[in-house]
Structures are given as structure tokens and as C-alpha cells.
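Newbie here. four chains, one complex. Structure please?
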Amino acid sequence: MADQLQPVQVEDGEFKGWFLSPFHDDYVNLIGPFYYLPDVDGKMQVALKVEQRHLNGGGIMHGGCLLSLADTALYVFAVETFKTSGGVTMQLDAHFLSPGNLGDVVIATGEITRAGQSTIFGRGQIKVGDRMVMTFSGVIKRASKSGA
Amino acid sequence: MADQLQPVQVEDGEFKGWFLSPFHDDYVNLIGPFYYLPDVDGKMQVALKVEQRHLNGGGIMHGGCLLSLADTALYVFAVETFKTSGGVTMQLDAHFLSPGNLGDVVIATGEITRAGQSTIFGRGQIKVGDRMVMTFSGVIKRASKSGA
Amino acid sequence: MADQLQPVQVEDGEFKGWFLSPFHDDYVNLIGPFYYLPDVDGKMQVALKVEQRHLNGGGIMHGGCLLSLADTALYVFAVETFKTSGGVTMQLDAHFLSPGNLGDVVIATGEITRAGQSTIFGRGQIKVGDRMVMTFSGVIKRASKSGA
Amino acid sequence: MADQLQPVQVEDGEFKGWFLSPFHDDYVNLIGPFYYLPDVDGKMQVALKVEQRHLNGGGIMHGGCLLSLADTALYVFAVETFKTSGGVTMQLDAHFLSPGNLGDVVIATGEITRAGQSTIFGRGQIKVGDRMVMTFSGVIKRASKSGA
């Protein structure tokens, strides 16, 4: 059944041509939507438009919101190494290089550095255009049921 | 003016006696509220009740939500080392030890391990009762203006 | 056979009463010796005396030497959760809080935060007396053969 | 005076054409030598040949030795952003992806992701040929005097 789910393509607006995930995730619904698009090399990009509700008391994107994007993106990078199983994050680290500002489109990209029997290692970066906002790396543990 | 802001104490319900932050934070409003209470040693606890909206597609608390709590808690631990200035997270790492489940009250506690001239180091844990959910550590960079 | 190996107790000098590992490790021989002693709560301490050969070009203990102590200590904390198998480090992170200086005795202590089926999580700190030098955390992957 | 120091080029053997650092570092002398060579893009490579003395009790390269190479390499990547000042590591994290084996030449490469006023962020990887052995990232704090 799951493989009958199709990503929905956005038909207009700033994210025209990007995709929405067909999988239900309450937390991503709360802080998202996140938008997905493979780049020219086939590597997945995960994007979020920074709105007022994503800002902290200092007027910049809350660190937890950036970390939420990083964590979700790490999982997305790992998905193609899944077979019937899913996975859960077991470790994540991040460096905050510059702020996400209101109106920015922050885009996470990355790579899987090792896909082992029980664990998947990855790393990536979040950028606004060419500006580095965050680098991150982490480990996903394979699970028998889907989860993130 | 800032020192006239007073935390608001919760008067009934599960968090009776805990405090709400007097500082406005749109992102914390979105995923929270977070509740605050010093423990018997005076160390601050930061709590969140896990609701349906905090869950991922696998039915457990989204990793990004736990990371958001960790990031916010690290800042809270650092606040007492602030003088006129605030700070921003520059690095955070976390280990995911067990899931946060629907209905759990997850509580972050921790300590500042070094408060230097320009950077503040801390670490902590998120628990449900005695069960470890996450450990984390990070670095806050002091800033001339408040931010997180 | 392995359980017939006994740690050797130091009979005099600064580390009198501490133990040397009975297990052969070329790298620890190169940069060590490391000394071992359970504290009053039964938690293992791992110590190194900082000599000239441990210093970097700036005249303080090289970061790699501190990381080597942290990595070894994490493994030592995990050992008691091993049964017939050993383990290898899969992830480690560290914060450098203050320098290790020539003549210092740096001591690593810590705890296992989760001992799962396939992975063991831990964290700790390296101190000189009461002064914090490093905090660290990491993950050990259980292996079918001993290794570090 | 410092700029009169010249790296020494290796004249024969496996590392012919690579350079040795002109800066004295007791710890690197103990576990090294490390060899340096800019790649075709001008990015510095830092290499170590794995010898018996680098192995742990399990017969593979000790994690601390890999971390020592990572820490040193991070500093080397940062050096070109230094002016009159040096720096010290304030944070480092690493993922262990595959073992370093006896006889391997492990090579660290990487990049600076942000060079700020007081801190420098970087990340990199250690490989044997095309095989990933470690990924790492970290933060260097600028100092008024040279140190690592």
C-alpha cells in the first residue's frame, strides 16, 4: 500500500515544481510544510520558508527549528537505503554558522557516508542561497518499523 | 523594563506550580508551551507534555521536537551566566536513548560546564521519570543583543 | 583465558594503588600508560600524567591526546556491559573547556547512559582536580570480537 | 621569524613529494609524523601511515589515533584563516565509518565552513583511497598566541 502513495507536486507559488511528502507526520505538519526536490545530481533537497512562527525571541529562526529540519533531512537522505524497514535517529550534531532570517528559504542537502547493516551515517548542510546556515551529521538506526 | 517581566505561575492542571516564560518566542509558542521549575537544588527544569502534534510518522515524538527542547533548555541553563547580553547556540549534539511517547512529560535538566568570556558550554539530559530519553551538550556564543 | 588476566597494581610513585590494564594495546602503550582506579562509588577513573611528549606546539596538551583519553575511557566505561563480545567506537564528540598543562594529572570519569542490544551510549568528563578540562559523549557498537 | 620556517619536502619513499611541518609539536612527533600535501584544488591533505604502534588491542587503528589526526587536520585547515594569531580546538565530533588497518595510508581532507571573528568552523573526512574511515567537524577558537 505504502508504495502507492505518491508525492504531491506544488502547482504554483514560490515552491512550484517542488513536492510535498505523501507520508503523514504530525510534527512536520506543525512546523512545516517541508518541500522536497531532487537536485540535478539526484540528491534530495529539503526546504522550509522561514515565517514569523519559526522565529525565537531574538527575531531569528529558532535553533530548534533548524535542528528539526536537519533531523528530518538526515532521515530523508537515509530513506533510499531502507528496504522494508524504517529507522530512527540515534545521534545528531550540528554547527550554527549564520542565522535563518524571516523570509529566507532554507534548504538542506547532504549525503549518506555509510549505510551499514544496522546503522546509517550521514551529513549535510543547510543554506540560504550560497550562505551556510548550518552543518550537521548524524546516525540513523535501522528499525523493523518505520519511524523518525 | 525586561526585569519587570515576571514568569507566570500555572494555577491548575498537570503543571500546577510550574512557570511559563514571560519572554515572547514565536517558535516556542508554536511547539510549546514549555514549563519551567527550579528543582530542589535550584537547577532549572524545562518540561513539555507530548501531544499528538509532536509525533512523527512512526507514532513517537519527532527527533526535531526533542532537539528543540534541548536547544531551548541549553539556552535557559546559560541565562543565569548572562549579564546584559544574550546569546545564540553555536553548536549542539545529542544522543537519542529512548522514545518520547504520546502523553509523556519530558523534562530537560542540565548544567553549565564552563562560562567563558565569549562562549558558554553546557550539557544535559531529557528524561521521562527516571527513563533517559536524550543526552545533549552544546555551546552558546554570547551576543550583544538577546537571541536564542 | 581472558578472564585470567589480572590488572597490575602500581606499587609506588604518584600512581601508587592505581592499576595498569592487563590488556595489550600498542597505541595506549605509545601515548600512555593510562592508570585505572574505581572511585568510591565503584565508577572507573582513567588517568594520564601530562608529560612533555603530550604537548602541542603551543605548549599545552594536544587535543588529540585528550580525545585519545576520552575514547579509551568511553570504552572502559562500556566494558562492564560487555558479555562475550567487545566493541568499537562509532561516534564521539567533545568540548574542550580548559587546557591540560605539563605535570597535570588528567582524570576521565563517566557513565553509561544506555546499554542496548547493539549499541552502548556513554558520556563523561576529564578533570584536573576540580577543574573541567573536557566533556565528551559517544556511542560504542557491540562487536563479536574485542576491539576499541 | 615564523615565516622563515619552511616545510621540508620528503625526498624518497612512500611519501616522496609530501611535506613535513616545520613547526615543532611533541605530540605529533610521538604519534606521527604527519605528512602534508595540497591537492589539485589547493586543499591541504594530512596523511599518516598506520603502523603497529597505532593499533588498539583489537588489531585496528585506535580511535584516539584517528581523532588525533582529525584534530590536527582541523587545525591545519584553519591555519590559512589565521593572521597573527593561532587557535585552539573548542569542540570536535567524529563518526567512525570503517577501520584503519595496519599498512593503510589514512588521509584527512576538509574545508572551513565559516571563519568568524572569534571562531572558525570546519569539517572533513579521513579516507583510505576511496574508502571512508571517519567524518568529523569542529570549532577552533582564535587565540592571541599560537596553540592547538
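Moderator note: The radius of gyration of chain B is 15 Å. Chain B touches chain D at residues 90-91, 93, 118-119, 139, 141 (CB under 8 Å). Thread marked as resolved.
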